[in-house]
């Protein structure tokens, strides 16, 4: 079969294609280009040669310029949105490489939304308690996804390279995430699958009068104040308020209704105790950002707001509630293990994806950029 044709498409065409799919990453919606406005961006569409009007795949490409040289890294976060089960992925990826090179790219990085392995909450809990396997990847998975190995083998054959963990210029998106399957489940099923602490905390928040409501752009300032407080407490660098204002404006107003973007607030006796950002594209919903107050931790606002978002995801028809990234550490003495334990309490599963793959188009410039990113 001949390769597909590829060309730049409009935001409306892009959004309409995403809206018609069962699911796709919010990082592949056209609105994400406006969030990452410091990058050059374009929407690409793939077409069957026999039917030039038949759009069969889309991708949001972000171009990051190399210092002092007008050459770019072409980045497709958690994408592109193509048929990853295709017998020949080269039909999609060869035209992508040609197009990116013509646009001045020295290399491409993409993150295929293809899972490879899954671990249940019980398996992870037992592994942490056992203390014999310091990394999630060392634990025998409950499910091995055959599509993951198939895609990885095709990518290698096409010249793509999987970044080694901890090396090379920074991977943008996590390879390990934690998700709660929602398909064929009701609220009672979700509660039953949670651990006893989660169920008790949800019940306690309700008993203590924690109220969770859906907010709007006017709530972003309060969200950000709580987010900065969370960053100071948990030792990470917070994003500035304008980033979230831009995010709300870009993501909540996308064409064709391809993305549902919400702010949630949890109050206790008038005090904001937790605030979050929730996103849904098709059947996939995400807990994207979260913040909680240091005071009144005992009212369990974080559990209450997670339960509300999970319940709303279920009601909206989502089949997955995604709590986003986790590290792969299972060492009880590692401070990062607390995040995994919090998410494991939801009763979901850890999912490993194939990760972010690179295609060097100009090896000299690719190596130079890699060295630059290592030294930053």
From TrEMBL:
Keyword annotations of the record: Acyltransferase, Cell shape, Cell wall biogenesis/degradation, Peptidoglycan synthesis, Transferase
InterPro entries in the record: Acyl_CoA_acyltransferase (IPR016181), FEMABX (IPR003447), PG_Glycine_Bridge_Synth (IPR050644)
Gene3D superfamilies documented for this protein: 3.40.630.30
Domain of life: Bacteria
UniProt-listed Pfam families: FemAB
Annotated family: Belongs to the FemABX family.
PANTHER family listed in its UniProt record: LIPID II:GLYCINE GLYCYLTRANSFERASE (PTHR36174)
Name of the protein: Peptidoglycan bridge formation glycyltransferase FemY
Organism: Kribbella yunnanensis
Gene name of the encoded protein: femY_2
């Amino acid at each position: 079969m001949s390769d597909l044709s590829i060309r730049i498409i409009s935001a409306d065409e892009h959004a309409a294609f995403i809206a018609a799919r069962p699911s796709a990453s919010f990082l592949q919606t056209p609105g994400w280009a406006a969030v990452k406005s410091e990058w050059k961006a374009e929407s690409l569409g793939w077409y069957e040669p026999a039917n030039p009007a038949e759009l069969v795949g889309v991708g949001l490409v972000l171009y990051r310029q190399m210092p002092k040289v007008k050459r770019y890294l072409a980045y497709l976060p958690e994408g592109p949105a193509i048929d990853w089960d295709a017998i020949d992925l080269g039909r999609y990826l060869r035209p992508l490489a040609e197009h990116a090179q013509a646009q001045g790219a020295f290399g491409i990085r993409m993150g295929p939304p293809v899972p490879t392995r899954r671990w249940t909450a019980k398996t992870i809990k037992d592994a942490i308690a056992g203390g014999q396997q310091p990394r999630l990847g060392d634990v025998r998975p409950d499910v091995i996804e055959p599509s993951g190995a198939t895609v990885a083998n095709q990518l290698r054959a096409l010249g793509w390279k999987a970044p080694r963990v901890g090396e090379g210029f920074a991977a943008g998106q996590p390879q390990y995430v934690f998700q709660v399957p929602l398909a064929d489940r009701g609220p009672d099923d979700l509660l039953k699958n949670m651990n006893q602490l989660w169920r008790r905390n949800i019940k306690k928040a309700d008993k203590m009068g924690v109220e969770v409501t859906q907010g709007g752009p006017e709530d972003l300032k309060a969200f950000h104040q709580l987010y900065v407080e969370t960053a100071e407490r948990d030792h990470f660098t917070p994003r500035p308020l304008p980033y979230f204002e831009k995010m709300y404006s870009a993501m909540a107003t996308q064409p064709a209704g391809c993305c549902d973007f919400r702010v949630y607030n949890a109050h206790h006796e008038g005090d904001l105790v937790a605030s979050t950002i929730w996103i849904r594209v098709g059947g996939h919903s995400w807990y994207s950002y979260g913040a909680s107050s240091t005071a009144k931790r005992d009212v369990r606002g974080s559990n209450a707001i997670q339960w509300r978002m999970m319940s709303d995801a279920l009601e909206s028809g989502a089949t997955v509630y995604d709590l986003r990234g986790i590290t792969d550490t299972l060492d009880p003495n590692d401070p990062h293990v607390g995040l995994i334990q919090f998410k494991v309490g939801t009763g979901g599963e850890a999912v490993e994806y194939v990760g972010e793959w690179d295609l060097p188009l100009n090896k000299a410039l690719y190596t130079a950029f890699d060295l630059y990113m290592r030294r930053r």
